[in-house]
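Fig. S4 source data, part A: sequence.
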Amino acid sequence: RMGSMSKAAEEMYITRSALSRCIKKVEEELDTPLFKRVPSGIVPTQAGEIYIRYAEKFLTEIRKMKSEIYEISKEYSGTVCVGATYSIVASVLSHALSWLQETYPNIHCVIYDYNVRILEEHLQCGKIDFLLCHYPEQQSVGLRYLPLANETLYLVMARSCYNRISEECPDVFDQIPWDELQSLPFYLTQSYYRDRQLIDLALKDMNLEPVHVQELCSYYSIFGLVENDLGVTIAPSVNCQPFLQNEKLVFIKIPWNNQAVDALYAVVQEGLPLSPSAQIVLDACTREFFSMNHE
């Protein structure tokens, strides 16, 4: 996956020579090469692909085994400090914490909700165990950024707008009438935001060019304008979550082939493993985010 022996060794916290010896030993046992060199680095051979597939299954089972043994040998408890951006607290953490309180009542979570840069400082000084964010645009030295889950993009419009369009296009949920929508005002986030870059990529891939685009800083402002039938928007599911109960809005999943994007990231200190309780909290957040996008 890394495409480089050096990068793979660094990821595993071992030397390149040690990794090479391990691979050579396995290849000798199987009597077949597992990797081959290409101009861009190294890639698995057909045998290597098979080996990796079974190895990943094996490692998954090992993790499950360790988790089950830990469950019966020691109760999860203690305080876990989690940093998260505002939208993730509202959409992901609030639901994950409800499940955690019922399932692991002895784990106490403390939440810090600031912007990413402040939370990274908290992480570096040990004030929080890990940080949850989406679309990290820059990465700080000494921190490790782990993509956890994907999400999709949604077209959002006022129900009154949807009713007008559905009269001419009854199958609006199956086939979005972009020709009619492109003439409406599109309220989107600032062009330098990471989510906006993904939205622009989706529009480009679908050969869509909205005529009127107005940039705003806050999704609360955007959804307020859309709710009053002043235009439409496209937004990632994590940003739609706080508004899903608004009956004045209609959310339509965009059928974009590349719509799955790494959206939820965990940021941890490089070389410092999470405690078992912190890992439980992180897994709960990942599971909640995944369920949001696969309902």
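Fig. S4 source data, part B ends here. The radius of gyration is 23 Å.
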